[in-house]
Amino acid sequence: MRVLLTGSAGFIGTAVGEVLEADGHELVRVDLMLPMAHGAVEPPAGTHHLDVRDAAAWTDLLRGVDAVCHQAAVVGAGVRVADLPAYAGHNDLGTAALLAAMHEAGVDRLVLASSMVVYGEGRYVCPEHGDQAPPPRQVAALDGGDFENHCGRCGRSLDWALVDEDARLDPRSSYAASKVAQEHYTSAWVRQAGARAVALRYHNVYGPGMPRDTPYSGVAALFRSSLERGEPPQVFEDGGQVRDFVHVTDVAHANLAALRAVVDDATAPYAAYNVASGAPVRIVDVATLVARGTGSETGREIVPEVTGGYRLGDVRHVVASPARASAELGFTAAIGPEQGLPAFATAPLRA
Question: How do residues 78-97 score in pLDDT, each as one tens digit?
Answer without folding.
Answer: 557 888 999 999 999 999 99
